[in-house]
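User:
Can I borrow your eye for a moment on a structure tokenisation matter? Would you put together a sequence-and-structure record for a protein of your own picking? Please set it down just below, with no commentary around it:
AI:
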Amino acid sequence: MPQLRLALAQVNPCVGDLSGNSRLVLEWCRRAADANADVVLLPEMALTGYPVEDLALRESFSTASRRALDALPGALADAGLGELLVVVGYLDADEVGPRNAAAIIHRGAVVDRYYKHHLPNYGVFDEFRYFHAGDDLPVIRYRGVDLGVVICEDIWQDGGPVAAYSEIGLDLMLCLNGSPYERAKDDVRGELVAARAREAGAPIAYVNLVGGQDELVFDGDSMVVDAAGVVLARAPQFVDHLLVLDLDLPGDRSPSDARPAGFEVRRTTIEGAPAVERAPCAGPCIAEPLSDEAEVWQALVTGLGDYVRKNGFRSVILGLSGGIDSAVVATLAVDALGADAVYGVSMPSKYSSEHSRHDADDLAERTGLHYRVEPITDMVAAFVEQLQLSGLAEENVQARCRGMALMSLSNRDGHLVLATGNKSELAVGYSTIYGDAVGGFAPIKDVPKTLVWRLARWRNEQAAKNGETPPIPPSSIEKPPSAELRPGQLDSDSLPDYTLLDDVLDDYVESDRGFADLVRAGFDPVVIENIVRMVDRAEYKRRQYPPGTKISLKAFGRDRRLPITNSWRERRP
């Protein structure tokens, strides 16, 4: 029975950095060779980064991608890596147009290519806009083993290349992925890959990207399952990792005459690559799954850290109000970048309570971030007196003075401003445009308020378990939330209880349920009317909010696209 040593390179490329990503491919192929691997599999569009969006339509970029791919086989051979069978994702372009492609490389040449068949056009995906679908079905015989290739969405759709490969017969299916993180998606992925392996009658090696790209974050979670759907190896989430595994495969099968309808079957045999005798590799890695809080926290840390680093920033700045949201964002920033790269500013007004000022001070001391206090009372007074402001206008001036202060310090010192609003507030418009909504990135934009509290408690518990100082002041977690823009103000003056609010938002925003559905779910019609009205009226604010890491099924922005000018309203049946 032929044995194949497989290496899955779970890597973090940067969109558009063709030279840097080429070096990344070479580095991880070197690691695979050092592990005595036969085959190394890299993720979907690892050479270009993913998603490339409208760069795919730019001829100069697709040409540069093809040139980078054309140079890769020679670079691998020159580095002494020519005997590896390398499968890597890239952007191709032919006479038809752009292609989401995979190249199979061996001994200084591209021996075959695969073009993605199913082009997703839902949620965050717009691939039907950019790419042309393939119909090819390459089968690579290597060391007596028949290998097939698919790309990401190809296994999410029934039928298609997986079913076609099952007709032909394979020993191993190689699946390249750029599958973004969502809460609990690792469970769905594992079940899907297992089902497709059973359908194909062959093991599947599934490699995924890791790292942040704008709103998206990729968690890795690469895996190998056998033909019965049993997990043989699984990589940890949110880290670069080389997953190495020895597979005993049937091999030396008779070529099939099957020609599945609608597919172009190509067979390539790589000659002169006999099986290699070697000691077995170490026992397979099956990473322990993360808890929900740990998974979300690591996704937010990864998304924030990569957004900062890949865009060339060295530091971030944010307002510290003493509340739970700014405390969580500050702690995320410290975890992602280190305390020395995080600058916090307390900006008290005449309405800021003493305990909130103390909580901001306490957070700075607990985390070790840079900290300063810049009172805004005189700034606010100048606007209020000259423009004769009162009520909501006066409240908003306070938020806008804080936003102006942060943006001015950003301009002076080169910091990236972090907005600290959460998904619940963003949903109902409970924020001040050009005030607390300013910034270049919003780390908890897709995190409901109730989850913000859960994450804060979890992070403090983890610190205590590790013998460290819990970073978030307990009083920031326990006290009733307030914007403190007028005497005695509480969020509950304007909003329902956050537990109720988040329940309604989950149904209305995440699931797109209408009024009648919400009533049947047990919500009070008066509450529904109030919340739905606030959500619908706040679309213009959301359009102007900074990007932030997606963790849910439906994040504001790429996932949920509603017109700003929109007279449709959900009403009582």
About this structure: The CA atoms of residues 316 and 524 lie 42 Å apart.
